[in-house]
Amino acid sequence: MIATGGPRNSEPGTLNQLFLDAVARHDKPDALQVKVGGRYEPISHGALFSRVRHAAMGLAELGVRHGDRIALLSENRPEWAIADYACLTGGVIDVPIYPNETPEAAAYIINNSGAVAVFVSTAEQAAKIAEVRGECPNLRHVIGFDGVRSPGVDHTLLELEAKGAAVLTPAREDAYRRDALAVAPDHVATIIYTSGTTGAPKGVMLTHDNLYSNVKAAAEVIPFSGHDTCLSFLPLSHVFERMAGHYLMMATGTSIAYAESIDTVPLNLTEVRPTLVLSVPRLYEKMYARVLENALAGGGVKKQIFFWARAVADRWADEKLAGREPRGLLALQYAVAQHLVFSKLQARTGGRMRYFVSGGAPLAPEINKFFYAAGLVILEGYGLTETSPVICVNSPARFRIGTVGPPVPGVEVKIAADGEILTRGPHVMKGYHGNPQATAEVLDADGWFATGDIGAIEDGFLRITDRKKDIIVTAGGKNIAPQPIENEIKTSKYVSQVVMIGDKRKYPVVLVVPNWEQLEKWAKYKNLIWTDRAQLLAMPTVHAKMQKEVFAKTAHLARFEQPKKVGLLEHEFTLEKGELTPKLKVKRRAIDRRYQDAIDALYREEPATVEAG
């Protein structure tokens, strides 16, 4: 069975067409927004285009030529967009590097891609490049975004733009536009290095048309008002934010406001008051946990009102999701629930939110339904770096919780005999840079790309069940898909992070990082005394409590799927320790290696059932 999003509704095109068309068509005062001196300041389409054009000409003055590669090591900020569009319109291939990468990882990407220059955002990022510059023989220029030259920086972006402005003439501007539009749709636009859990990162070559087609397809299925604002905080180095939060927003005339950091997102939401937000499930999990925490921390009446409102909203959601319009008493009760409870949640997102979009990892259906019932729609989608990235996405017109939606226009999806999801269309990468063998392993002669994910097609909607490489095969030969089980466990207010282990073992176990705020409250209520968190985790009563939470969330599973032991970890998994990918997905094998002693200890004794209050 093949699911398709229907025919492609656009001719092959380029990101340069999108950019130049957006500048001419929208011409708004707030194409971009950035916080300066405590307030958000706008940057117009005209000012953005002027800086992009000058930067592109400045690169040409430095000797950068069509087809050269330039790395981009920066956090989300307007200069990222300027550098990106300058490269694209100059026919240069840009190579984003995650801002938290080590100097050694940055050097690998620079050398593997053959980058001749690198943009750096800050003195800290410049220092990384300075540390390894002697190991990068092709690297000729380091260009800094800050207004002053940090050590190791050859030119500032403003100096680069000044070089371009100095040679600007009407004839040069005409040539710049002509050359930008002459870039072919199949020309490589960017090389994005995947984080990979094993082996060296692979450079995914995405063409202009790969990304162009994905922008056009996404714009067809997700409605834009023409007056939208998007808060940008996922890393632009990742293809999800880059396609959807950067190119798609520019093409639709949506104002892009850059969050100061991931930590300031709650504050920036209330300042920017966005209508669209793209995120990975971790944000929604934290928001959900915070809502439950606030409800449970209130007095008896407040708690009763919350759970009444939640029950009403749940019934309302069931009606809406079944295609029926709630009426009568239920409609009245829902209006009251919105006023008393859910309006406060909406206010914390800025009060204007039309849609959240979720991608990068599976979102627990319970969490998705909670937000839907609260009046905050999360459009869950699915894709990979190699697919530009969107393969499927839910839309207001076609929405089904627990799935990642139907394929977008121009995209085909089918399920292989072993359950693996395959996809074909204009969104599929050109290949891995300098690695034809790895390309051949995932891309067949008919254009089908093997995603490495397991799933099923239901009425044209795609449901993801797990990563092919993550499937746990127990010693008894039972196959377990861990991600849905982990998502179930994470809906406990006492759980922050969880990883299931059990490949080639007698039975599955889980490692759990507690939600410390909730667990410590419970421990105080139980009159437990502790001096540090490690001591608290060592208490049998605490372990029994956490085990009870896990077992309650997994009691409905088949016996072979139920975790038999629970190991507790003090510290959250982090990017810095190599335990998470940049999309905040857990690196299961890295966790297995890092906590091998703790895991082995879980298998030394037979499972036992422990009760806790």
Architecture overview:
- By secondary structure, this protein is α/β, with parallel strands linked by helices.
- Among the domains are: 44-183, Rossmann fold (3-Layer(aba) Sandwich); 471-602, 2-Layer Sandwich (GMP Synthetase, Chain A, domain 3), CATH 3.30.300.30.
- The chain contains 21 helices and 26 strands.
- The strands form six sheets. An eight-stranded mixed sheet has the order 3-2-12-11-13-14-15-16, with helices on both faces. A five-stranded antiparallel sheet has the order 1-17-18-20-21.
- Strand 22 (472-473) and strand 23 form a beta hairpin.
- Helix 1 (15-26) packs antiparallel against helix 2, helix 4 packs across helix 5 (123-132) and helix 8 packs across helix 9.
- The radius of gyration is 25 Å and the shape is globular.
- The chain starts with a strand and ends in an 11-residue tail after the last helix.
